[in-house]
Amino acid sequence: MNRVNAVVVGAGAGGGIVAKELAEAGLSVVLLERGEWYTAFDCRKDDLRNQRTSVLGNAFGPDDERNPRVAVDLKGRARVVRASGPGYSNNAACVGGGTVSYGAMAWRYMERDFRMRSTYGQVAGSTLEDWPISYDDLEPYYEKAEWEIGVSGDDSGNPFRAPRRKPLPMPPLAPNREFEILQPAAKRLGLHPFHIPMLRNSVPYGGRGPCMRCRWCVGFACEVNAKCGTQNTVIPKALATGNCDLRTECMTREILTDERGRATGVEYFDVHDRLQRQDADLVVVSSAAVESARLLLNSKSPLFPTGLGNRYDWVGRNFQGHSYTGAFGIMPDDIYDDLGPGASIAICDYNHGNPGLAGGAMLANEFIRLPYQFVGMLPPDVPKWGREHKDFMRSFYRRAIAIQGPTQEMPMFNARVEVDPKVPDYWGIPVARLSGDKHPHTIEIGAFAAAKAEAWLKEAGAVRTWKKLAGPGFTGGQHQAGTCRMGDDPKTSVVNRYCQVHEIDNLFVIDGSVQVTNGGFNPVLTIMANAYRASDHLIKGWKGTRYR
User: Which domain holds residue 370?
Assistant: First the structure.
C-alpha cells in the first residue's frame, strides 16, 4: 500500500469526523472500517433481529462467529460470549457505527460534568476525576457538530443547560401525545421540561428530507435518511475531497511502531482475509472503548511489551457505559399515537445538585416500544409467557409510558478491558476480555432517578407504576467510555488533552474511550465535538509529513 499521511481505524461517530477534517485539510487519509456500509434497504424492519441483545443476530454487525469476546462475571467465572447475546457490550460494526441505528439524542454535557472531582470530591472506591478540558474548550465544537451533522430540538426551556452561542439549527418535531401529557405534569411538579435535542432532521437539511415519524427508529436505519449520522454527513464529504480512501470489511490487527517508538502504520486483514500493511505518518484509533483498548493492548513490541499507551496499566481501565434507570406507568386510557421517534420531552432538574449524590441523570420519555421491547418492561408480577402475559400485553401496551435516563456512573479502576490469553477471533487476534463491577454509588444515583421518574408519571395520571433499577456489574453497550482516559498526567491517563497518546506523539485515540466521565446523558454529541476539537489541534500541528 502507498504510504499516506493518516490512517483512521473506525468509521463511527469519531473516526468519520476525523477523516473528513483531515481530508479537507489536504492530508491523504485511509479510513478502515471492520463492517460494511449498510443502507436501510439492506436492513429490513425485523423487530426481533434489530434489538441489541438478540439471539437472531445483529442487523449492523459484528458477525457472531468471527467476533467473540470473553466476559468475566462477579464471581470470576469467564465465558465466551457472542455479539448477539448478553454480556458482549456490543457496538454496531458498520460505516457510521452506532450513528446508523441510534436513537439520536444530541446532548451537550453540563459544565459540572467536566469537573466532577472538583464538584463532589473524592468518591471512595472510584477513580472519579476532572477532565483536563472544560466545557468552554468544547463549546465551539459542540456548535460545529450541531450545525454540520444536524440537530433539531429546542432546549431554551432548560435553565440548567450550559451556555451556548447559537440555537439549534432545526426546530423540534411536533409534540406527540406523550409530550402533551407529560409537559403539564412536569410543570405542576416545579420541573423544567423541554424538547429533546435530536440528531434528526425535522425539516429538510443537509440535502436530506425530514423525519417521517415512523415507529422503527432506535435500532433501525432510517429509510428516508433523516437520522443524521457520520455515514450520511461527514464521510461522504471526506470521500468527495479525493483525499480519503474508505476500506470496508477490514479488521485491524496491530498498530506498528519503529525502533524509536513512533507509529508507522497498521496491519489489517482485508475483505478477502489477506493480511495487509498500511504505512502512515500518523495513526488515529476511533474504534470505541472496547475495541480501541483491545487494539492498543494487542500492539506489543520490545519497546511496548504491555501494549501502546499502557506503561502505567491504564489502557482498558475505567470502562463505563450507562445504567438506564427510571419507571414505567400505565395510563387510564390509550395514549399510543404511533408517532416516532417517540422520545420527545426531557428534564435536567436532576443531573446535579441532588443531596448526598455525586451527579444524577437526565430523564426523558422513551422511544416507541415495539411489542418485543415491551416484554422487557413488564411489572415483576406479570409472567413472561402464557395467558396472563398475553392479556397484559393486549390490555396495556397502548396505555404505557416509560421515563428513564442514563445514570452518571462512577468510574472504577477494576472495570476493564483486557485481551484474553487463550481466545482468539476468526483472524487469530486475541479477543477483548471484559470484567469488573459497578460502583455502589452509581446504583444509589439510579435509584434516586427512578423515584423521580415514578413521581412524574404519577403526577401525569398513571394508575399503576413500577421502577427500573440498576443492578451490579459493569455496563457497556453503545454508551462506552473511559478505557483510554484523557489527562495531563501520563501516570494516570492514556492520552493528553488533545487525544495524543502520551508516549507516542503521532498516535491518537479519538472516540468515547478518552472520556474521563460519561455524564448523565447520551454521549454521542460529546464524542463528535471532541473529534472536531482534536482534529483541529492535529491539523494545526501538522508539519507536512509528521506530527510533533
Answer: 159-198+324-406+439-472
